[in-house]
Specification:
By secondary structure, the protein is mostly helical. The chain folds into 2 domains: about 20-50; about 55-255, Penicillin binding protein transpeptidase fold (Orthogonal Bundle). The protein has 10 helices and 3 strands; from the N terminus they run H-H-E-H-H-H-H-H-E-E-H-H-H. The chain has helices at about 15-50, 60-70, 90-100, 110-120, 135-140, 150-165, 170-180, 190-195, 205-215, 230-245; strands at about 80, 180, 185. Helix 3 (about 90-100) crosses helix 10 (about 230-245), helix 5 (about 135-140) crosses helix 6 and helix 5 packs across helix 7 (about 170-180). The longest helix is centred in the N-terminal third of the chain and has 34 residues, at about 15-50. The protein is elongated. The N and C termini lie far apart (about 80 Å).
Length: about 260
């Protein structure tokens, strides 16, 4: 009806505290999305780049160099990258026989051994071999060595990435190049020159097995002065290399 006054209930005013909280939450959410976005871009980009170029260094190398400097020891890092075809196939086979015999078949994770490791950890025991070569490469190249749930989650993420983007041959090539094989010594080429005076391309089965035998604890065990454990481990590795069928076991890695 014309001229009739209508009453409208006034809108409640927002509390300044509520508005401020909403603003902070909105900013935090945007910041989180940005961090995730840039992390994905950088991580995927770095994996793609390192599919084609040699790994210049790892955090483990830097950590050892710093540790040696602080201790007043020789801090020179022995590291020489060699392509897949310039490393003896016996070396590639030896690390698979010693560390991850299902490497050609799994997609980065050995769930059977992970389950065994989990059960043994609950009982207060320790088990070797729960981490695959792929997981070790992901950790060695992109992450740090200390254990935490965050690092483990990132390890899973990078393991999936390198399995998808790199493939088996590249993963094995990187592992043989960056694996720690003695104090300040990384990769088959540096180790072969240091311990045997030859190139990694000329490593025999026995020599490759000796290098692979110290991989679980390269700062504790010695290639040139093996203790009882390493001495027993070397023939076990060579037997396993024969049982796998020799270097023919890895000849088709490129197709994976």
């Amino acid at each position: 009806m014309a001229g009739k006054n209508t009453y409208r209930k006034p809108k409640p005013k927002s509390s300044p505290k509520i508005t401020k909280k909403a603003s902070v939450f909105s900013y935090a959410k945007k910041l989180f999305y940005k961090i995730v976005f840039y992390f994905l871009i950088i991580s995927v980009g770095s994996v793609v780049v390192f599919k084609f170029i040699p790994i210049p260094f790892t955090l483990t190398m830097m950590d050892q160099k710093l540790e040696s400097l602080l201790d007043g020891d020789d801090s020179e890092i022995h590291y020489a990258w060699r392509s897949y075809n310039n490393v003896s196939r016996e070396m590639h086979l030896a690390v698979i026989a010693a560390e991850d015999q299902l490497f050609p078949d799994h997609f980065g994770f050995d769930f059977k051994h992970m389950q065994i490791a989990y059960k043994n950890n609950l009982r207060g025991k320790k088990v070797r071999g729960a981490s695959t070569i792929s997981q070790q490469v992901a950790k060695n190249v992109f992450l740090w060595q200390s254990r935490s749930y965050i690092r483990k989650a990132l390890e899973v993420y990078f393991t999936f990435l390198i399995e998808i983007i790199w493939g088996k041959q590249r993963i094995l090539e990187v592992y043989v190049n960056v694996a720690e094989m003695g104090k300040n010594t990384f990769g088959a080429e540096a180790a072969a020159q240091k311990y045997f005076g030859i190139s990694a391309k000329n490593l025999t089965r026995e020599q490759a097995a000796k290098l692979a035998a110290v991989l679980p604890s390269p700062r504790k065990w010695s290639v040139t002065k093996p203790g009882p454990y390493v001495s027993r481990r070397v023939p076990k590795i060579t037997r396993q290399m024969r049982a796998l069928g020799g270097t023919a076991y890895i000849k088709d890695l490129r197709r994976f």
